[in-house]
UniProtKB/TrEMBL annotation:
<feature type="domain" description="Major facilitator superfamily (MFS) profile">
    <location>
        <begin position="199"/>
        <end position="450"/>
    </location>
</feature>
<feature type="transmembrane region" description="Helical">
    <location>
        <begin position="40"/>
        <end position="63"/>
    </location>
</feature>
<keyword id="KW-1003">Cell membrane</keyword>
<feature type="transmembrane region" description="Helical">
    <location>
        <begin position="101"/>
        <end position="123"/>
    </location>
</feature>
<feature type="compositionally biased region" description="Pro residues">
    <location>
        <begin position="1"/>
        <end position="12"/>
    </location>
</feature>
<dbReference type="InterPro" id="IPR020846">
    <property type="entry name" value="MFS_dom"/>
</dbReference>
<feature type="transmembrane region" description="Helical">
    <location>
        <begin position="69"/>
        <end position="89"/>
    </location>
</feature>
<feature type="transmembrane region" description="Helical">
    <location>
        <begin position="263"/>
        <end position="296"/>
    </location>
</feature>
<protein>
    <submittedName>
        <fullName>MFS transporter</fullName>
    </submittedName>
</protein>
<feature type="transmembrane region" description="Helical">
    <location>
        <begin position="201"/>
        <end position="219"/>
    </location>
</feature>
<feature type="transmembrane region" description="Helical">
    <location>
        <begin position="129"/>
        <end position="152"/>
    </location>
</feature>
<dbReference type="Pfam" id="PF05977">
    <property type="entry name" value="MFS_3"/>
</dbReference>
<feature type="transmembrane region" description="Helical">
    <location>
        <begin position="342"/>
        <end position="363"/>
    </location>
</feature>
<keyword id="KW-0812">Transmembrane</keyword>
<feature type="transmembrane region" description="Helical">
    <location>
        <begin position="408"/>
        <end position="434"/>
    </location>
</feature>
<keyword id="KW-0472">Membrane</keyword>
<feature type="transmembrane region" description="Helical">
    <location>
        <begin position="164"/>
        <end position="189"/>
    </location>
</feature>
Amino acid sequence: MTEPGAEPPASPPTSSEPAARRSHLVDLTPLRSSPAFARLWIGEAVAGIGGQMTVVAVMLQIYDFTGSTTAVSGVALFALVPMVVFGLYGGMLADAFDRRAVALVSAIVAWGSTATIALLAWTGLESVWLLYVLTMLNTVASTVITTTRSAIYPRLLPRELLPAAAAMHGIAMGAMVTVGPALAGVLVATVGFGPTYTVDVVLFVTAFLGIATLPRILPEGEVQRPGLESLRYGLAFLRRAPNIRAGFLVDIIAMTFGQPRVLFPAVGAVVLGGGAVTAGVLTASTAVGAMVCGLLSGRLGAVRWQGRAIARAVQVYGLCIAGFAVVLLVATLLGGNADEDFGGASIAAIAVAALFLAGSGAADNVSAVFRSTMLQTAVPDNMRGRLQGVFTVVVTGGPRLGDLYVGALALVAAAWFPPLLGGIVIVVLAGVVLRVTRSFREYDGLDPKP
């Protein structure tokens, strides 16, 4: 038993070389090595499925209230700025206080907001603004949990198992964004909004179990109270961390120029056919690719030159996005060859497009595994929360910039042009970052330096 106030047990000794694995299948050693990590990961995966159910159900309910897609988009817009702010503030909290307590309080807020949404649905109260506020509160709390959890993992596992843990996180994320929305659609259609939200309320109990059973995890080293000075200190550290900066930069490049999701409705309606079904298939393909990559991630833990791995994975991501664009171009040039037995949809073109998007999801997952590992091993313990908070801003803002880029360019060009140009730009710029940042190019997972 851990005495109150005690630090968690020492991590297992690290080896001098990455663990060699013959199997391509996901390395489950983190689950066996640390029961605390196992409980935290299971809680994250199960509760995350419920969280995605609620995200989709809220959008469906708002559309049911208003009949307006603009009102539905307000869910994301209303939560964007608070998500960025509390991503940064949550990182400061994780670097100043007991991380178990920070995560537990945030989980209580997230659970309470979901329970209130469920109560509104059961009582039949129709208020779009209440749903906006409660969803924003839930998003803020979930952001703080995610930031804090990322700072906890390195205290539960030895360094050589962190890539495997990051790959398992990719599996959990893939399951969340594929299973959760599908369940939400089925449950809303069959039993209604109240029972759907209630399922999330029940599933969230697993997250409580994972967090509540942790020992106290206090930051190691100098501790600063949350505030502007703490944030400035974190940003000053980032300026002295070329490898972390380069990892952030290539991710911003990929997310800004390689996010074709806003094209999917038009692609389904005009280019490939199939309407909303095609849009759904294309949307799910990226998550499926990430999940499959996670399941086949067994040898990632043996990769030593992790900076190169990030850049090359991002370049593969760019090639896949460009490949998706080529499918759209060919389908446009060969218009009229759709299969009439399937409502005018070009089944072959949809399948190939989905494969390219699945490839982009797999490549993005590989990049994410090593970015996460770099953050957790090269950054000092008392800075991990703040740097993870900055990264939250990157992964939150990047796709929004991507939507803006694609949407603006699609107004003056064909649907295939933004992803084709974006894919080429990603390949070139990721290569430039790798070329000009020597320390990133030579980053060694056995000797991590920020």
